[in-house]
Amino acid sequence: MSAAGPAMRSRFFARASEAAKQIAGRQPVTLCFSPLINAIPRVSPFSTSAPSYCANHKPSATTTQTNSTNSEPTDKYVAGLRKNKDWAAQTAREHPDLFPTLANGQQPQILWLGCSDSRCAETSMLGLLPGDVFVHRNIANILHPGDLSSGAVIEYAVKHLRVKHVVVCGHTSCGGVAAAMGSKQLGILDPWLLPLRQVRERNLATLQKLPPDEAAEKLVELNVRESLNVVTQKSVVLEAIQERGLQVHGLIYEVGSGVLRELDTTDSDEAIKARLVAFKTEA
Known about the structure:
Layout: H1 4-25, H2 34-39, H3 61-71, H4 76-94, H5 98-102, E1 110-115, H6 122-126, E2 133-138, H7 148-160, E3 165-171, H8 175-181, H9 189-192, H10 194-202, H11 204-208, H12 212-231, H13 235-244, E4 247-254, E5 259-262, H14 269-279
Parallel strand pairs: 1-2, 1-3, 3-4
Antiparallel strand pairs: 4-5
């Protein structure tokens, strides 16, 4: 081995020792990955944890917006799930017996036959609680005489739950009514809206004399009355009216004000007798 080998090793270790001393005298280096982390899409929309930032990193405007979105989500489904526990806790405080009572069954006094429109939430507009209203909703609150879905709901509510009131509720600015007032093909909606178009046909002369907005509101009312006719042609409803005083009501919900308007649905004695003869059946 040559003498150059030990000398080189000596110089190497001397340099390494000097470098170690210099590093030891420096301040620790902090690596900040927050910008990178914040750029990664968040997988779970339900996460409520706030990101932690490095001491020398300030959140950007984008990060602040993301945090704000996470704390107050604009997605109504996510927001609803987050608010559910608060709603349940508040309701339980205000009505301690409500949920335990509902767990044992329901005793609604009202059957509500309304439109599927998201603006027409019956329990909210009535200021009532869960368990107060039995509900069937569809597009434009149309009742087809042979529809098994609405028919089953009506029979169960009247015969088994023994509700005291049956309500048919239409509303202003109804998309189904607007469709029936037009002539555009709508696929599967066309047969569904057929009873509404038939109501329009029977009242065409009256509707054509009105401005478009008033004509649409008039058709809303006529549609409610037609659906009430379907309800009161059911034997189970006629029997309940005779035997225990079941009441049937027609309402219009004003979307622009949140106010309900009750229609005069009083029938003459002759009309009631004719309906009983024609539609009431015996077991």
